[in-house]
Each structure stands twice: as C-alpha cells, then as structure tokens.
Amino acid sequence: EAGVTQFPSHSVIEKGQTVTLRCDPISGHDNLYWYRRVMGKEIKFLLHFVKESKQDESGMPNNRFLAERTGGTYSTLKVQPAELEDSGVYFCASSQVRDRGGEQFFGPGTRLTVL
Amino acid sequence: GDSVTQMEGPVTLSEEAFLTINCTYTATGYPSLFWYVQYPGEGLQLLLKATKADDKGSNKGFEATYRKETTSFHLEKGSVQVSDSAVYFCALRGSNYKLTFGKGTLLTVNP
C-alpha cells in the first residue's frame, strides 16, 4: 500500500511568488493534516481536514496560506505571496480514525526555500 | 496550551552505547505520547507510543514509559547501532487530534 506522498520534494522560489504544495494521503484516510517545521524549531500543526471539510485551521499563520481538499482526496497548500519566513519543511499526514491513540502517517515533506 | 520539551542535541554516541533522550510535557487531561523518528531523506515514522499512565511503548529495541507523576516520556535504548542515526521527535496528542512536537534531537552513532 502506498504511503503519504508529497510533491514537490523541494521548491525554491523568490519572495512574492506563489507556490502550491500537494499531498496525497493514504487511500481511504478521511483525516488529513498539514504541519510545518521552520529551521531549528518545533514541527507545528497548521490545519486538519476531515474529508473535504476543514475541521481546524487554527495553526494557519495568516491569510497568505490557503489549503484545499477538493473531493476529500488529495490536498493542496498554496502560499501567495511567499515571504522569507515561510521557508521550512511542510509535512502532510493522514489517519483513518480520530481516536486519541490513532496513528498519523507522515509524508516525506516538501522543503520550501523562499529567497 | 500543550507543549513538549525534549533534550536538544546533537547527541553523538559510539555503537553499542546506551541512549537516553529526555522528554517532558505539559498538557491538560491525559494525552497520548509518541516518539517519531526521521531517518535521512525520509518522512516521519512512528517509533512507539503510549496512551495512558505507566504504559510502556517499545519498538526496535527502543522503549519509553509514560510517567504521569513526572510528566515525562524519556526514550531509551540499551545498545545503539549506526542505523539508529536519525532525528527523534517527542510528541503528544491531547484532547483533540493534532500532534504537539518537541524540537527534535539529532542522534549520530559512530562505528
């Protein structure tokens, strides 16, 4: 069974440009999460989808970030316009159930560098 | 809010040495606790977990015990191998579904 996949693996853009990250969760997983790790800091929660609905977007830094999950399958995270502080590794995770011990399966991450 | 504090690295050990990576947490209620590992070039993988006080999670020779009285979940391994070189993250999941992570500890094991 395929794991969580993310595209691209790396992206280098200039300040002010737009970037779209994609995540394909494990097939059948209703829950999809985005996290971000800025250099040297903790991995931080951004938002959570249940199917196509945003369950919690309390971690989204500001309105330059837009996440979508059309049809409840893959998700995209768009940053527009990108700023220097957006650089980091963006992780996507998915899970099948929401119980407290349920495992979230992570993708390899997208490393975003904003110059 | 919830928070996780873990020992900052980097940690460098020789093969077969004993490993401890400290992790303490702050959370309301009774969180589930996790250790994730990220090997070079790969994504995060769940290493072990514990869902209630006094539970011991174990996997691949690693162990961690959920200590409610000390709010700790220290990771230990009796004899590390070169292949254990990775970044280790302590995390908790509280009354909601999202994970709260520590900063990560880079472990390098030399032959």
SSE inventory with pairings:
The complex is a heterodimer of chains A (115) and B (111).
Chain A: E1 5-7, E2 10-13, E3 19-24, E4 31-37, E5 43-50, E6 53-56, E7 65-68, E8 75-79, E9 88-95, E10 105-106, E11 110-114
Parallel strand pairs in A: 2-11
Antiparallel strand pairs in A: 1-3, 3-8, 4-5, 4-9, 5-6, 7-8, 9-10, 9-11
Chain B: E1 3-6, E2 11-14, E3 19-21, E4 23-26, E5 32-38, E6 44-50, E7 56-59, E8 62-65, E9 75-77, E10 86-93, E11 99-101, E12 105-110
Parallel strand pairs in B: 2-12
Antiparallel strand pairs in B: 1-4, 3-9, 5-6, 5-10, 7-8, 8-9, 10-11, 10-12
State the main characteristics.
heterodimer, A: 115 residues, mainly beta, seven-stranded mixed β-sheet, four-stranded antiparallel β-sheet, B: 111 residues, six-stranded mixed β-sheet, 12 strands
Question: Largest sheet of chain B at a glance?
Answer: 6 strands, mixed
How would the global form of chain A be characterised?
Answer: globular
* Average pLDDT level of chain B: 94
User: How far apart lie the N and C ends of chain A?
Assistant: 37 Å
Strand content of chain B: over 45%
Structural class of chain A: mainly beta
Fraction of residues in H or I helices of chain B: under 10%
| Unreliable residue stretches of chain A | none
Radius of gyration of chain B: 13 Å
Q: How are helices and strands ordered from N to C of chain A?
A: EEEEEEEEEEE
Inertia-based shape of chain B: globular
Q: Order of SSEs of chain B, N→C?
A: EEEEEEEEEEEE
> Which two chains touch over the largest interface?
A-B, 30 and 25 residues
Number of helices, where a helix is a run of at least 4 consecutive DSSP H or I residues of chain B: 0
List unreliable stretches of 5+ residues of chain B.
none
Major sheet of chain A: size, sense and barrel closure? Answer: 7 strands, mixed
Quickly give the structural class of chain B: mainly beta
Total strands of chain B: the figure is 12
